[in-house]
Amino acid sequence: MDVIPAIDLLAGRCVRLYQGDYAQSEVFDENPVAVAQQWAAQGATRLHLVDLDGAKAGQPMNQAAITAIRQAINLPIQVGGGLRDRNSVADLLALGVDQVILGTVAVEQPTLVEQLCREFPGQIIIGIDARAGKVATRGWIETSEVEAIPLAQQMAALGAAAVIYTDIYRDGTLQGPNREALRELAEAVQIPVIASGGVSSVTDLLNLLSLEPAGVTGAIVGRALYTGQVSLQEAIRAVGNGRWQDIPPDFGSSALA
């Protein structure tokens, strides 16, 4: 299972929100490029970037930071936030981003999603962010009446490469992922599902391994990495994929060793 570090960008800085609330943001680093290099050096297989300003504004806002990260590391990068038209998606892919994450347009413009899946095969991921099973849109500011599982099934049929599922009530809380919701979603679609929100320990990641046969292929980790509650190196050693040659053999003590 892939352990995917998250870099959430707000005004060019690396931050984390609590339950998606912009009023409850915490700055963890002023230099997201240095953070990206740190995760790369510790063995990450890919990075998850979110343009929080873009998600709120409805258009990409942190291109400079994203470009700098792209130029600084040689890892696949997936980026979401504010991608609501064809040009925004094409421009971001032209910067060298490997995959883009669509959220709001999956609810509001499924025809556009279908067109983008055809034009950029394998590069379109759907971000499904839910409160009590209902999909939130526009930077999590609004909650629709659309339910997560039917939306995931629709997007899979349109050609999406994967689904990232976030339980907003768990995001940034370190309360553990919503395994039941993840299992139901993964069993309902035939494309990979990536878990997001709530990971607080390597134990949480180990618990997600039971969902791998159902199709949960990765887990995005944010706050727990920044607070030190999860060591990326230990997490990779424990649950799955990593670039082992970049991890020193004395990376640190672990109860899992």
Automatic annotation (TrEMBL):
- InterPro entries xref list: Aldolase_TIM, His_biosynth, HisA/PriA, HisA_bact_arch, Isoase_HisA-like, RibuloseP-bd_barrel
Any Pfam family hit: His_biosynth
GO MF terms, alphabetically ordered: 1-(5-phosphoribosyl)-5-[(5-phosphoribosylamino)methylideneamino]imidazole-4-carboxamide isomerase activity
User: Alphabetically, which GO biological process terms does the record hold?
Assistant: L-histidine biosynthetic process; L-tryptophan biosynthetic process
User: Is Glycosyltransferase set as a keyword in this record?
Assistant: no
Where it mainly occurs, coarsely classed, is cytoplasm
Q: Which UniProt keywords apply?
A: Amino-acid biosynthesis, Cytoplasm, Histidine biosynthesis, Isomerase
Catalyses which reaction(s): 1-(5-phospho-beta-D-ribosyl)-5-[(5-phospho-beta-D-ribosylamino)methylideneamino]imidazole-4-carboxamide = 5-[(5-phospho-1-deoxy-D-ribulos-1-ylimino)methylamino]-1-(5-phospho-beta-D-ribosyl)imidazole-4-carboxamide
Give its E.C. classification number: 5.3.1.16
**Does the record carry Isomerase as a key word?**
yes
Q: What family is it from?
A: Belongs to the HisA/HisF family.
The protein in question is named: 1-(5-phosphoribosyl)-5-[(5-phosphoribosylamino)methylideneamino] imidazole-4-carboxamide isomerase
Source organism of this protein record: Pegethrix bostrychoides GSE-TBD4-15B
Q: Which gene encodes it?
A: hisA
